[in-house]
Model the fold of this input.
Amino acid sequence: MNLRIPGPTPLPPDVLQALSRQMINHRGPEFASLIAEVTNQLKYFFQTENDLLILTGSGTGAMEASIVNTLSPGERVLAVSIGNFGDRFAEIATQFGLDVVKIGFPMGQAADPDEIARKLDADRDITTVLVTHNETSTGVTNDLEAISAVVKGRDKLLIVDGISSVGSVEVKTDAWGCDVVLSGSQKGWMAPPGLAFASLSKLAWERHANAKLPRMYWDFTAAKKYLEHGETPFTPAISVFYALQVSLQSLREEGRDEVFARHARIAKHARDRVSSLGLRLFADPKHASNTVTAFYTPEGVDSRVIAKELEEKYDTVVAVGQGAITATTMRFGHLGWVSEADIDVAADAVGKTIERLATIPAR
Ligand SMILES: *Cc1c(COP(=O)(O)O)cnc(C)c1O
Done:
């Protein structure tokens, strides 16, 4: 099967093999050396010297963890949203009783750092900014460096959902001053779902010390304390650690810059192939993502009809749109273990399917 969704992503053979290993004691020396190695490798790709915690849960769990560990009830946060995952971050903050100020931008566009600056200057009670680095629902990558400069220039806490970017796209956690950066094992890391990552700056720990939201499973103090002894507070997804150990070794061997360059090259290939089918790309070309490409379906053709035929006839699985653009857009994931040939298989299948379903009217 050609699985071309933006996570979970296909696993290389050596990673699959690692998943069949026998269980070990998660409070023993073998696990201690495993978590130490995986943590160090992740820090290299996060480009950080900050603490990095590995949590058992999905990416959304890490988003929730970042909120309950750094904020107090009623605290005012600015939630920057350019799509569904930005909305989700705002929703989590709202559910936990925070005073959420939302700043939205049209789907397909990136957030404007100047507008964020104006919002922060006009509302001095905002203590924290939530932002999505790579918006997986629209295939748009925000200019995180510019946004960080605005937020850190005003001494606010910056929490970044980098779930579909870190490890595939450059994120300079320390150089850009990102306080909390999140990712998830099933995206660019060539590992199964089950683990999520959070890096924490000195400021994030200071906020944590005074944060009053209730927390137990996600408590970062406990996670840090256990990590010092090579453990996690609760039973971790051990098999996903096995997989990550192997996938991180290959990514490390390939080299950080080479991994980022490969994602950029394949993303461009994906955009070129989609455009050459006569389909219109969804994202503003200046901010097109290197991990996911969204495009419009032909006029009047529902994405779900195309997706069904792709799966049944061509054994190719792509993602339909999300939210308001579910029916009118589709998405190719191209993060993790992916090559130009994989994109070609998916693009050829889409081409044949839309040719059968409809003739594309001139726009
Ligand atoms: C996938 C994704 C998430 C959610 O992760 P889950 O593991 O499904 O909870 C959050 N944000 C972004 C940007 C994502 O791509």
Remarks:
- The CA atoms of residues 26 and 231 lie 7 Å apart.
- DSSP finds 13 helices and 13 strands in the chain.
- The mean pLDDT is 97.
